[in-house]
Automatic annotation (TrEMBL):
Signal peptide: none annotated. It is found in: Cytoplasm. L-glutamine binds at D66, Y211. Its EC number is 6.1.1.18. It comes from Desulfosudis oleivorans (strain DSM 6200 / JCM 39069 / Hxd3) (Desulfococcus oleovorans). This is Glutamine--tRNA ligase. A motif ('KMSKS' region) lies at residues 267-271. It catalyses: tRNA(Gln) + L-glutamine + ATP = L-glutaminyl-tRNA(Gln) + AMP + diphosphate. GO terms for cellular component: cytosol. GO terms for molecular function: ATP binding; glutamine-tRNA ligase activity. Residues 456-531 form the tRNA synthetases class I (E and Q) anti-codon binding domain. NCBIfam families: glnS, PRK14703.1. Belongs to the class-I aminoacyl-tRNA synthetase family.
Length: 554
């Protein structure tokens, strides 16, 4: 029995197991095509497939690269996919397979079909094949080659393999039923000629199997019991079944479809994401604004948060558009418990404490994580000159503004009360510095005479501060569903302000040790992590993972 929240797929499995099916356990697979980086939609599929293998006794999940399309696929994508699956916390162990490793067996299956009179070599052009396929109401027209004798088909097919023909001259088609009400059964293509190098098999092959043929048979070769895929494959299920029934013995794999994940304000399609990369709208597949696993990781999202998100959305049979705020909620939930707190000022305003001795300083004890007593404390340097957040000060504060203002006293977190005595401006009237005084009796944050302040500000000692670039991110698209394109190109809906770099920002010195991708809570500002790529020793770069404010309404 599965322990996790039960979805319709696990319910089917539970019933099957109760009926004595699958005595040897379950085999699932995650079958990416290595033609791009994985995105959060793939994370949903990974969590489902690997999650089922973890939940049921004697069960395993294969990572299978569906690499039957030379040209679009490459080793960089293969490597990134392996890394992303591992990062999410799943380990396929030695169960990593490539459909291209089955090319010889798939070819033998195709010859088998030809010998059985169930496949033929067709000389129609791709256009003609489309035209003669018929419609939902009209049957298709048989190809003139449909009744070519098996020996002739075999000879032609072998010559296709031998490289005698140019791309598009012939294809191998299954001979099923040109009048079938199920369109995918109208003599679908199973092999095409492609004189193109493959990232694993090189120039060994110039014919390649179609997805609809390679996929079910790869499942069968691997002994997959449950072939879980997204709804767009539902129409092709009769063809999936036809191939495994013609060519393999029971027990056969069974395909079950579930709804793909769609997220608001982004696109989850490798083709579209690949355009964002190649046309330079983002810095790469791992740009922290991308919904790719690599982008999300670089942004500072921990793998557990992504897995929790996948649990929250569940598995359904109907497509829906999930609010990206739910992902952000899952990230905050996790980071609130785990992220160490630090102080950083991203819009700095200088504060000089006039009555604090010049050249001196001290260290304040700061709590690393109030949610986690084991996280301990650290020392934060304090001195006469500090930075506070510019918007924590207002010269003429409106009624509800309780932070710093002329003549007003506030608390500096873990330090003292300070009072603003005067404001220094530049020639154009911009505030450049505040002159304040502090009360030495308030060290640690409370006044012995019991007087109260209404605000506590974060701060960084100017002399000790680390200057860094901080990158604020907003949604990549302005439109809730950019794929619903209204006839316009989805790139027209990109948010021009999705990246806002700030420099210099000032960080407390402990942040120089921040490991890339590991998020911290910058107090009062949000969660941030050191960037894995663009940081240099003299210019650290931090990415905002998420803000603190939750917009997810349950
Ligand atoms: P895309 O549609 O983004 O190009 P794909 O479906 O072509 O992706 P594959 O590499 O073929 O990507 O997919 C690997 C597996 O991940 C498939 O089983 C597919 O159904 C699943 N998958 C892809 N996108 C999603 C999604 N948005 N939600 C859930 N599962 C998905
Ligand atoms: Mg695909
Ligand atoms: Mg797809």
């Amino acid at each position: 029995m599965s322990e996790k929240n039960t979805d319709f797929i696990r319910r089917i499995i539970d019933e099957d197991l109760a009926a004595g099916k699958y005595p040897d356990g379950l085999v699932t697979r995650f079958p990416p095509e290595p033609n791009g980086y994985l995105h959060v939609g793939h994370a949903k599929s990974i969590c489902l497939n690997f999650g089922i293998a973890e939940a049921y006794a004697n069960s395993v999940c294969n990572l299978r690269f569906d690499d039957t399309n030379p040209g679009k696929e490459n080793v960089e994508y293969v490597d990134s996919i392996r890394e992303d699956v591992k990062w999410l916390g799943f380990d396929p162990g030695d169960r990593v397979y490539f459909a291209s490793d089955y090319f010889e067996r798939l070819y033998a299956f195709a010859e088998q079909l030809i010998k059985d009179g169930k496949a033929y070599v067709c000389g129609l052009s791709a256009d003609d094949i489309r035209r003669t396929r018929g419609t939902l109401t009209e049957p298709g027209t048989p190809s003139p080659d449909r009744n070519r004798p098996a020996e002739e088909n075999l000879d032609l097919f072998r010559r296709m393999r031998a490289g005698e023909f140019a791309d598009g001259t012939y294809i191998l088609r299954a001979k099923i039923d040109m009048a079938s009400p199920t369109l995918c059964l109208r003599d679908p293509a199973i092999y095409r000629i492609r004189h193109e190098s493959h990232h694993r098999t090189g120039d060994k092959w110039c014919i390649y199997p179609m997805y609809d043929f390679a996929h079910p048979l790869s499942d069968a070769i691997e002994g997959v019991t449950h072939s879980l895929c997204t709804l767009e494959f539902a129409n092709n299920r009769p063809l999936y079944d036809w191939f495994v029934e013609q060519l393999t013995d029971p027990p056969r794999p069974k395909q079950t479809e579930f709804a793909r994940l769609n997220l608001t304000y982004t696109v989850l399609s490798k083709r579209k994401l690949s355009r964002l990369v190649s046309e330079g709208f983002v810095s790469g597949w791992d740009d922290p604004r991308m919904p790719t696993i690599a982008g999300i990781r670089r942004r500072g999202v921990p793998p557990g948060a992504l897995r929790n998100f996948c649990d929250l959305i569940g598995i359904a049979k109907k497509e829906s558009l999930v609010d990206v705020a739910l992902l952000e909620y899952a990230v905050r939930e996790q980071l609130n418990k785990t992220a160490p707190r630090r102080m950083a000022v991203i819009h700095p305003l200088k504060v000089v404490i006039e009555n604090y001795p010049e050249g001196e300083g001290e260290e304040m004890t700061a709590v690393n994580n109030p949610e986690d007593p084991d996280a301990g404390t650290r020392m934060v340097p304090f001195s006469r000159e500090l930075y506070i957040e510019a918007d924590d000060f207002m010269e003429e504060p409106p009624k509800k503004f309780f932070r710093l203002a002329p003549g007003r006293e506030v608390r500096l977190r873990y330090a003292y009360f300070i009072k603003c005595e005067s404001v220094i401006k530049d020639a154009s009237g911009n505030i450049v510095e505040l002159r304040c005084t502090y009360d030495p009796a308030t060290r640690g944050g409370d006044a012995p005479d019991g007087r109260k302040v209404k605000a506590t500000l974060h701060w960084v000692s100017a002399r000790h501060a680390v200057a860094a670039e901080v990158r604020l991110y907003d949604r990549l698209f302005l439109k809730e569903n950019p794929s619903d394109d209204e006839g316009r190109d989805f790139t027209e809906f990109l948010n021009p302000d999705s990246l806002q770099p700030l420099f210099p920002c000032f960080l407390e010195p402990a942040l120089t040790q921040a490991a890339p991708c590991r998020a911290f809570q910058f107090e009062r500002l949000g969660y941030f992590c050191a960037d894995a790529k663009d940081a240099t020793p003299d210019r650290p770069v931090f990415n905002r993972t998420v803000t603190l404010r939750d917009t997810w309404a349950r």
